[in-house]
Design goal:
Blueprint: E1 2-5, E2 11-14, H1 19-29, H2 41-54, H3 58-75, H4 80-84, H5 92-107, H6 110-145
Helix pairs in contact: 1-3, 3-5, 5-6
Length: 152
């Protein structure tokens, strides 16, 4: 179980995933962690990459965290709206990594999970570099379509 801190410095424990939590996440956050396994080979890589990319959406990440931390919220009398104010963008990287560690532990055999988690920082870095490239291309394409770029 990994511990994270909210904006107030209060600690929260990211619980291990269970079948029930995965079902709740799929229904509430519309992300299916079992898809990360794919059908093997390149399909598994693509499926894992697509699932990882979904966690870069702040609402999806927040919804996943709500499901994972709901029991702790109930004990602290924190409703869903108040929960939304407890984590900000500066914490998303740590939160995403904590969720990914839980997902890897749930979806992979222990020896495979260990290898994946050892490379997780590298995987996250590659994903972020890909997102940066997409963003830059999108902005460049938008600027060109609006004729905001200087003429050659």
């Amino acid at each position: 179980m990994r511990t994270i801190k909210d904006v107030n410095g209060d600690e929260w424990k990211i619980p291990a995933l269970t079948v029930g939590r995965v079902i709740d996440i799929r229904e509430y956050a519309e992300i299916d962690f079992l898809e990360m396994r794919g059908k093997g080979g390149d399909d598994a890589k693509t499926a894992a990459g697509q699932t990882l990319a979904k966690l870069y959406d702040a609402m999806t990440l927040g919804n996943v965290l709500w499901v994972l931390l709901k029991e702790q919220c109930e004990k602290r009398n924190v409703d869903e709206r108040a929960f939304g104010y407890l984590f900000d963008a500066s914490q998303f990287g740590e939160l995403r990594e904590a969720v990914l560690n839980a997902v890897v532990d749930f979806t992979q055999p222990p020896t495979v999970a260990k290898e994946i988690k050892a490379d997780l920082p590298g995987m996250i870095s590659r994903m972020e570099n890909a997102l940066i490239a997409v963003w830059k291309n999108s902005v460049t394409d938008s600027a060109e379509s609006l004729e905001l770029t200087p003429a050659a």
